[in-house]
Each structure stands twice: as structure tokens, then as C-alpha cells.
Design goal:
heterodimer; A: mainly alpha; 4 helices; B: about 0% strand; elongated
């Protein structure tokens, strides 16, 4: 069977980027990025289990300006992937395929991901959770 | 079984991806809310949280569903963009084993804290 030259999907470079296609590739990109974020969660939990010295080291890394910037990025990636994932689940049951609907839900995902990221960080910064 | 065709396992992959996605919707909201509330918390506070009634269960569920979802998703990305057959299969195996190992480390960490070892 001649399988060497068969095309693989998707050939993104022939398409002009559109709002919906950019959202689509962002879903993959954030998914891959969140794999790295998941490793940070593993590190944080392992540090907590290893003891206070290890945990304090993780805490100071997370609390540095670079650490906070990275965590802010992961927060947005997580909310984006979560909300767009919900959009995907509705498509899976056959809802929301109309172009106008897909654009509308796309905007909702883009805006809500930013709003929820801001809300989560407001809770963290203002200490609304009651943490010290 | 070399991952060259669906061999009727494509549907199971698709279904597992969606099932874990549905489970992750509430779990991710829980994680972000919890971490935001724990912002700046010290070791004792985080340990107390992981010994609570909800956190260890939700965290272990999140880790299992999350890493399973991750390796299923990365497999599709690798299948789409990595062209060489050896590189493709090697990467997929690496991703699956690394995901399982990472999940195992994190779950054991949660259990160690939860049972107070």
C-alpha cells in the first residue's frame, strides 16, 4: 500500500486564518501548553508531600514575578481550553454548528476566558479566599 | 496495533476524550477556585486543605481524568503533525508513559498528605 506520500490533515498553511480557525488552533495550543502546566501541579503537590522546605521553595518560585506571569498565562490557557472544550462538547451533540452561532460562541469563549482569568486573580490578589 | 489505523479503537479514544472532558469541567473550576483561595498559602495551610473532606478526592479525580485527557489529546496532535512512523510511535509511547508517571507521582503525593504519612 502506497502510504508514503498520502497527505496528513490539516494543511493549515493553505487556509487564510479566520476567527473560528484561530480559535480552533488555539484549542490545540492551549491543550499542549496545559500539559506543561500539569507538570507544575505535580511539582507543587510533590513539594507539599516532601515537606515545608521543599514547599517553600516551590512557593517562592511561584511567587516571583516570572512565576506569577507564567501562572497568569496558564490560568488563561486553562479557562480558554475549558470554555472552548464545552463549546466542542455541544458540537459533539450536534448543537451550535451554524456559522453565526459558532462565531457568537467563539466570542463568548474569548471574552469569558479573560473575565474568568481576571476574576480568579482578583480572588488571589485580594485574598478573598481567606488565605494568608 | 501499531496505531496505523483505527482498528475499531478510534471510537473508544473519541469517547474517552469526551468522558474525561465532561468530568474535568467541574474539577477544573474547583481547582482554579481552590488555588485562587490558597494564593500565598504556606505549607501547613495547604496540607490542612488536602486533608479536608473534598480536596483529596477532587484532586485525585482531577489528576486521573486530566492526565488521561492530556495523553489522549497529545496523541492526536502527534498523529496529525509528526510524519515519520518511528518518531510518531516513539513520541506517542513517551507521552503515554510520561503522563502515567506524572499522574502516579502526584496521586501518591496527595495520598501521602491525606493519610498524614
Amino acid at each position: 500500500m502506497a502510504q508514503e506520500n498520502r497527505p496528513l490533515s490539516p494543511h493549515l498553511q493553505i487556509y487564510r486564518p479566520q476567527f473560528t480557525s484561530v480559535l480552533s488552533i488555539l484549542h490545540r495550543m492551549t491543550g499542549v501548553v496545559l500539559g506543561l502546566g500539569a507538570l507544575l501541579l505535580v511539582y507543587w503537590l510533590a513539594a507539599a508531600a516532601a515537606g515545608p522546605q521543599w514547599f517553600d521553595q516551590a512557593r517562592s518560585i511561584a511567587g516571583s514575578w516570572l512565576g506569577e506571569l507564567v501562572l497568569l498565562g496558564f490560568t488563561w490557557a486553562l479557562f480558554y481550553h475549558l470554555l472552548n472544550g464545552i463549546r466542542h462538547l455541544f458540537w459533539d451533540i450536534g448543537m451550535g454548528f451554524e456559522l453565526a452561532t459558532a462565531r457568537l460562541t467563539g466570542w463568548a469563549v474569548a471574552i469569558l476566558s479573560l473575565v474568568l482569568t481576571g476574576a480568579a486573580w482578583a480572588v488571589g490578589i485580594l485574598g478573598l479566599g481567606g488565605g494568608s | 496495533m501499531r496505531g496505523l489505523g483505527s482498528a475499531k479503537e478510534g471510537a473508544a479514544h473519541w469517547w474517552a476524550q469526551r468522558l474525561t472532558a465532561v468530568a474535568l469541567v467541574p474539577l477544573v473550576f474547583w481547582l482554579v477556585a481552590s488555588l485562587a483561595a490558597l494564593s500565598g498559602a504556606g505549607h501547613a495551610e495547604v496540607v490542612a486543605w488536602l486533608r479536608g473532606p473534598i480536596a483529596p478526592v477532587a484532586m485525585v479525580a482531577l489528576l486521573i481524568a486530566g492526565f488521561h485527557h492530556l495523553q489522549l489529546g497529545l496523541q492526536v496532535v502527534i498523529e496529525d503533525y509528526v510524519h515519520g512512523e518511528a518518531a510518531k510511535i516513539g513520541l506517542i509511547i513517551t507521552v503515554k508513559l510520561a503522563s502515567a508517571l506524572a499522574a502516579l507521582i502526584a496521586v501518591l503525593a496527595v495520598l501521602r498528605i491525606a493519610v498524614g504519612a
